[in-house]
């Protein structure tokens, strides 16, 4: 079995966090990037040939993966291959849907001519043994197996849902139904018999924005293919929104975390830079926190995830927040319920998470739940107050903050910065 890992998504619901970086390359848990979980699942499951399909802002992702050394995927045959869109003799086009992206790399799969193809997304946090799912697929003589997970009925409309019989064979499949009749949601993880996948991709090659949930699965269902639901009951988080991303990071620091990064038998691998250990000064206070390598803590940190190389100055206080790699928090600054991306420079005596919780005026669906979100490489001047449900991106100055404030619900994005 070979794996095709879809990692080209823009992740627009993460707002300024993904204005310069693909969603699978966003930092997670103080040390990792989101794609590390799918790659680690592959090597832990014995899947050692992985094609990573990139498109949107691929540089950080390509640099992170490299030749696959951290995941033991640097191999002469197989290993990891980066698969961006490329110009062909007959056409040149971007990937326009999940299945279209796979179709454009059909020659890669034909080269390996596998028995089975595993289709994965690169933007979920979970641990899964794909070998167990493959055994289920073989035992049922399935053409396609869809990994599913039970979700609350009120959330089922956000997913593709399946209706299986008592033998787990799927009788019906509905993509994001308005009135779902099942709460068994597709996880976007599929195992196909190679012949079945190849035939479906070629048959639907002219379908605009060809997608697995909307086109490939319904097509195969109409062809009477044997499609089964593999039910997964472990931890699985779609970190597609700022709140779910913040929440899943906060769950890592529970006394008994629901998702355990420290299990010896199922390690999560990542590219590790050569950096010094953490330094926590005599005056610092740290409680319930993940502190990345090379971090320098002089202030107070509570219930937060701090990335590598972060500096937190004397008298600064960070609570319920995610501070990503190489960010500096100036002396006396107060940070509450914030997500601050990589390489941000925050001045002294600033205040994040101030005031009432007013809905964001520009993107109330993205910047919500009382969070402050700051895009990477931004600059925040000394002494400013930033309200809740806000977004800041770019090199800002005092002139950008009327009366020294960015009130709740406002968005401050300097020219040249996306979203």
Give a structural overview.
With 419 residues, the chain is α/β, with parallel strands linked by helices. It is 17% helix and 29% strand. It is built from eight helices and 31 strands. The chain has helices at residues 35-44, 59-65, 98-103, 106-112, 130-139, 194-203, 212-222, 242-251; strands at residues 2-6, 27-28, 32-33, 49-53, 79-83, 116-121, 124-126, 144-150, 160-164, 170-175, 184-193, 227-231, 236-238, 279-280, 285-291, 296-297, 300-306, 311-312, 317-319, 322-323, 328-329, 334-336, 338-340, 345-346, 351-354, 372-374, 379-380, 385-387, 390-393, 405-406, 411-413. The strands form six sheets. Strands 15, 17, 19, 20, 22, 23, 25, 26, 28, 29, 30 and 31 form a twelve-stranded parallel β-sheet that branches. Strands 5-4-1-6-11-8-12 form a seven-stranded mixed β-sheet, sandwiched between helices. The protein has a six-stranded parallel β-sheet with strand order 14-16-18-21-24-27, with no helix packed on it. The longest helix has 11 residues, at 212-222. The radius of gyration is 22 Å and the shape is globular. The model has no long low-confidence stretch (mean pLDDT 92).
């Amino acid at each position: 079995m070979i794996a095709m890992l879809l990692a080209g998504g823009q992740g627009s619901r993460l707002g300024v966090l993904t204005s310069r970086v693909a969603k699978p390359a966003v930092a997670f848990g103080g040390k990792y990037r989101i794609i590390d979980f799918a790659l680690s699942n592959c090597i832990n499951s014995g899947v050692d040939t992985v094609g990573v399909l990139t498109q949107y802002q691929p540089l950080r992702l390509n640099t992170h993966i490299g030749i696959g050394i951290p995941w033991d995927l640097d191999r002469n045959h197989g290993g990891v291959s980066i698969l961006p869109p490329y110009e062909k003799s007959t056409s040149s086009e971007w990937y326009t849907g999940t299945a279209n992206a796979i179709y454009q790399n059909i020659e890669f799969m034909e080269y390996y001519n596998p028995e089975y193809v595993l289709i994965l997304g690169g933007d979920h946090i979970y641990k899964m043994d794909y070998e167990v799912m493959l055994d289920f697929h073989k035992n049922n003589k399935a053409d396609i197996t869809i990994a599913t997970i039970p979700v609350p009925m009120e959330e089922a409309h956000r997913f593709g849902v399946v209706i299986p019989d008592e033998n787990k064979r799927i009788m019906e499949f509905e993509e994001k139904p308005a009135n779902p009749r099942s709460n068994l949601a597709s996880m976007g993880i599929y195992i196909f018999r190679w012949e079945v996948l190849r035939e479906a991709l070629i048959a639907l090659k002219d379908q605009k924005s060809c997608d697995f949930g909307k086109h490939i699965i319904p097509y195969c269902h109409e062809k009477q293919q044997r499609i089964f639901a593999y039910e997964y009951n472990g931890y699985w988080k779609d970190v597609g929104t700022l709140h779910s991303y913040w929440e899943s990071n906060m769950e890592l620091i529970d006394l008994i975390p629901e998702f355990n990064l420290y299990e010896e038998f199922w390690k999560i691998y990542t590219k590790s830079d050569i950096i010094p250990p953490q330094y926590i000064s005599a005056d610092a206070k740290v409680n319930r926190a993940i502190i990345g390598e090379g971090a320098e803590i002089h202030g107070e940190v509570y219930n937060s995830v701090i990335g590598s190389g972060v500096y937190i100055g004397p008298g600064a206080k960070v609570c319920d927040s995610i501070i990503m790699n190489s960010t500096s928090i100036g002396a006396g600054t107060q940070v509450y319920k914030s997500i601050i991306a990589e390489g941000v420079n925050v001045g002294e005596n600033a205040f994040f998470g101030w005031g009432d919780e007013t809905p964001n005026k520009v993107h109330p669906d993205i910047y919500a739940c009382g969070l402050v979100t700051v895009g990477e490489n931004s600059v925040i001047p000394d002494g400013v107050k930033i309200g809740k449900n806000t977004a800041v991106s770019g090199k800002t100055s005092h002139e950008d903050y009327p009366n020294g404030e960015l009130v709740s619900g406002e968005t401050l994005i300097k020219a040249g910065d996306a979203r």
